[in-house]
Give the backbone structure.
Amino acid sequence: MKPVPRWLSLPGRGRAAPWLAGGLLAAFALGVLAPGLRLADALDDANAAERALADRAREPAALQASLVLARDRLDTFAYVDGPLGDVRRSVASLDALLGQLKDDGAVSGVLASHPARAIDPPALAELGAAWQRYRKTLAPLLAAHPLPYTESETRGSELNDAGRALHEALSVAAGAGRSQNEALGRAITHLAADVDRHSARLSRTLRYLMLGALAGAILLAAGLGLLIAARLRQARRLADVERQTAAILRTVREGLFLVEPSGRIGAVHSESMTKLFQRGDIAGLMLTDLLRPIVSADTLGTAEKFVEVLWTERTRENLVRSINPLQEVEVSFDNGTGGRETRHLDFDFHRVRDGEQVAALLVSVTDVSQRVALAREIATLREQSQAQAETLFGVVHLDPAQMRSFLGESAVTLKMINAILREPARDSAAFRRKVENILRQVHTLKGEAAALGLGTVESRAHAFEAELKDVESRREIGGSDFLPLVVRLDELLGHLNSLDGLVGRVAEPAHGDAPGETIPSVEPASLPPLPLLLGNLSDTVARRQHKDVHLATTGLETVPPELIQPVKNISVQLVRNAIVHGIEAPEARLACGKAATGQVHVEFQRDAGGNCRLQITDDGAGLSVVAIRAAAVSRGLVSEDEAAALEPRGIYGLLFRPGFSTLAEADEDGGRGVGMSVVAEQVRTLRGRVAVASSDGQYTRFTITLPAGQSGRQANAA
Amino acid sequence: MAAAPLKLLIVDDSNIIRRRIARSPAVDRLAVVGAAANGVEAIELCRATNPDLVTMDLTMPEMDGVACVEKLVAMKPDILILVVSALSDKATAVEAIRRGANGFLCKPFTDRQLDEALAELLAGH
């Protein structure tokens, strides 16, 4: 037997069986009872007829006796009215019988329906004739007669004329009776035997009918018994199924429930649902209402669309699984004390089909909070080990001096940030300046980390930067907003220290440096060669931006030591900007007839008088006046009217304002609106100037001129 | 499907992804008939090359993937569309499936994942 042939419906087979049994029973009752009753009736009639015939069989003898008695009484002058009355009654009775036989050959009701087939008509006719002859002799006796005696004193009692006539008639009748009576009696007995045979036939038929009925009843009872047994078995099986289902639903750890096409949760669900969703009213609830209080509005919207997709037959199971938005979904519950408790639930959807149609959705829900937590822990550990590996790699493959210089510089930067954080501030504007200041420092650090391929440092700096941007975006900034910043700073500092430890372990013995010094002091000589640093940066950023870039440098080895730091800071920002904003994607370049690989050129020149010029050129899309204006307005740096009034020169100036960016979303490579303000500040510190030249679709060139003799200032400032 | 290989159209605004799919061994059995960088191009190429299969990015300039899926399905109801998109785009992916796309492949993907996704797309139809 198949488990459940159709969706949730009881087996249809056997549903007609009770009707069939009832019909059979009724047909059986009618088939047995109707002829049975008819037979019983007929038998009753036959019995009555038999009785009547038996009574009349004695009638001729009785008649004869009455005749003889009447004559004897007459002889002794006794009273004759009694015997004569008997004679009349007997004649009337036989008249009636014979009349009936003659008229229609039937006796009472039985013979009416069963004509006396056994009596042959000639015999009946003979009987009739014999009776008629006999009856003629009886006729004179039937009329009333005067007193048959005469009383006289002389002669005593003697028969008078009437008496003699009566005597004569009696003698004639008795004589006829003697000759006819036997035939009459025989005929009647014969008739009686006939009826008796008929009645015996009826009894036999009734007996057969009863036997048949008994057999039928036994068969019917057996059939009913089988049917009831089958029903009981089915009921037991259903009860078993129900008990097992209940046991499963009670015990299973997953939340299990069905969703009906109406979107409602079915009446039956596993008990763990109550615990998973912290509510008891799940049966009959809309799935949407179950989710709404615990997931975000976005997730809910996607989930609703997803469930809609599930109801369409054509989507396949694997596809369903791959786009399920409720996989490891974060949910939050009221914990009863005003807070929210966050967990992760995994919803798995299976379509329950009825033929081709999707009849319901089976949903299983698992609490995967531990798994997710574990996965995160593993990810953190992996990142840590990756950080170590990266560092080791860096230490082995990069110039150790480069690493040391980076770490030293970073230490200085972090010290500066710490100092900025400690600076007293009273109003929101002062706090804001502090934030902007820190932002620039962190941004620079991030750029350098990226250039060295130190992803773990870069991602931490990026997180720190995001936090800073978040604070900066607030309308009012207060001291308490700085608390999370301190945490980030600590994190970054801790990470840099651990890197330093690694570098110390791996690199120092090889170079024979003095151990124990945690962060080496900054020495210009230990700075990495600029071309290498910028090359690294270019490769990293280009890869992330999916662009093909070739970086060329000229004259960077002639940068005087005191200018290495600012030249590096400026070129890191501008090279990054050139790749992110200037160079187009390879296909776009091909589309407008350029080589797929973009060119970025960094050139440093120093004239005899000590004036320096740094030029960063890219052959990208050029600066878009329109885009810069729009971005500056949307970021609230200038009003729309102010922007419209600006000339191209003024527009380019907007680039250097803190907070400017044309990117809507910030990532590791840009969008925070910090980079150009770093350039501007460096140039300002060195009393230099920045010139911007650009042609739409052709190139962008930043030219930074630094007057002689300013390097000392820079060195002091650092 | 005996003689002629099925025709594949690649739609993605990233050159790298387009090349990635076109050069993957997963599409060896297919004939790559075109690569479009946005929805508008995809519609034109579909009209010109009448592909059987399409790999579809969702976030593109000009016309996004969801709108493009809808147009392609309207043009050619038996077309098989594999949405290739980042996991963070799940909401959009669901929307694309709702409009008639047939499969989903999460970026980044391996050759094997691409192969399986295409095989499943073809197996289901």
DSSP finds five helices and five strands in chain B.
